[in-house]
Amino acid sequence: MTQAAPQLLDGKRCSEALRARIATEAGAVKARRGRPPHLAAVLVGNDGASRTYVESKVKACEDVGFRSTLIRLPDSITEAALLQRVEELNRDPELDGFIVQLPLPAHIDADKVTLAIDPDKDVDGFHPENIGRMVLGHPGFLPATPSGIVELLRHYGIPTTGRHCVVIGRSHIVGTPMGILMSRNTDPGNCTVTIAHSRTKDLAAITRQADILIVAIGRPEFVTADMVKDGAVVVDVGIHRIADASRKSGFRLVGDVKYDAVAPKCSWIAPVPGGVGPMTITSLLLNTLKAC
Asked: Are 65 and 27 spatial neighbours (Cβ–Cβ below 8 Å)?
């Protein structure tokens, strides 16, 4: 029996629908208090991927009627000076939320910077107070990428209750919070969750059990067709530039999943690019709106 062509978890289309709602609510915030939601992004150094991502966030703010501020700092900035800048942002009454873009230069302790951010302005959702609220199911800011994936599954009506969700990756940014959100007594949620990683024994045997497979291992085209069961829902979080002389740009973008081989086995799959990426930025906007 031939597997039907997979349906796409189109993050661009989903985020467009959410951003229309965000724009309406941002207008209401401005009418109520006289100023729009305000998001700031701190970019340390000149990493190309970070710069592109932050600029996308700034444009997204403009598109939905937010005020945005981009703070560029040299990679030579001291840890003390960056912490002082964070404290200034914490105290700014005109600012609803801000992010400090990761990664940071090696001489700066990223955990120390995260801890310095006011939890009420931590729209990335990385502060321990917000992580704790997520674990307990209390209101707070959810990490943007896991939250975006949940919204993507909700938008497309993917059934999750009672299903086996396997998450590959255990970072505090994606893998660990993803497992928490998918196991909560919510919809989407109510999954039986397995968190796997690069040191999991017989990883393929575990991933083949997944009804929903979320891949955030950070290795290009790591998941191959033999690791996915027929009819699975696959969400690819990774994005990598691979040299490709046949392209005008000289490269192509791939995810953590070998898309061409895996897609024919799936019922639904999130493409790269255009799947999770737009949803991450949209979740950041939702958190900023919540901060208002």
From this structure: yes
